[in-house]
Amino acid sequence: MYMELSTMQALGYAVRDLLLGLGQSLLVFGIVWLIALVGVVLAVGITLRILRRRQILDQPNERSLHRVPTPRGGGIGVIIGISPIMIAFIYGMVRSSQVGLANLAMSMGIGLYLLTLVSFIDDRRSLSPLVRLLVQSLCCFWLVAAISPDYRIASELVPIWLERLVLMLALVWFINLYNFMDGIDGITAIETLSLGLGGFMSVILPSIINVILPHYFTVTMPSFFDHPPILMLQPVIPILSMVLMAAGIGFLFYNWSPAKIFLGDSGSIPLGFLSGFLLVCLVLAGLWQTAILLPLYYWLDASLTLIHRLKRGEKLWLAHRVHFYQRAVQGGLSHAQVARAILWVNLGLILLACASLFIPFGLALLAGFALVGWRLWRFDRLSPVTQRFLHSQPESSS
Known about the structure:
Helix content is 70%, strand content 1%. The chain has 398 residues and is mainly alpha-helical. It has a domain at 7-61 and 68-254 and 262-286.
């Protein structure tokens, strides 16, 4: 279309076409983000005052990394804050003509609020690990079972029941992983906004590239902007991404070090469920490389720590301080320094996820493992145990 024009003229027309084509959708998603952000900021602020007034505080102990009693349960405010958007979104999906989409929406909504309720009770009364695991498994099973059989990940390799079972177990693990990693100020808020940003970029970038640079790159992955109506299946990923970004940024106002309020299980569990659902949607949409790269730091830190604790015969449901990021704090870095370092890693993973559209995925994944591995190694070297080991070694003679 633009071959007979100069390069600058062609680029100008392409940008104009991009703005005209995506403007409506981007405006809608921007409004969604703003409403959710304002809702989270207001709801968490109100929750903070209630928790302080009722003295619902997280007391420091030998396994925690904070020194002063801090209100715990800010996750209730986060979920309440995003509820207007989530309820409207779920209602729109249910009212759509697609039966499978309605079932998926209902399963997501019921799971989200059931996990919030049970986790809030756990914050107050400490439910048994078995009860928590059963509720999480039920919610994940219900969600996965609601996915239409038309959406397959590996249809030519495994039967659908095995695929869904693996998907359910991965979702349960991701929920618990999200909870395990919520151990210092700002870390869960940063991970949540990073997943939201990465999810949004993964669906908007193909449209931008295909319009501006059609003669240099062709991205053949599905475009979620081909159908502008907001209540169709296509906007599920960008709307969930906007909600997660708003939840992360809104809570970060209160949770950046020194934190005024902690998320608690009532926040980390449902946010893990919602984030995991976003990753499932990415996989089902064919964006599995994005779903692997975006949470790679959380995957590796939590998984390697789990293996380490299994080898030591520890009870996995008990609190601890042996995650790599926790070792860094114990080694002298502040909560803010560690959270900021993880943010930079996440931004690198987002760039790699976007780059995987144009370069071999194996190369992007290798770079992702190298980036996260380097960061974990740097954190581990700050660990008091590692420091004592290094300092105990005799110096080599020159």
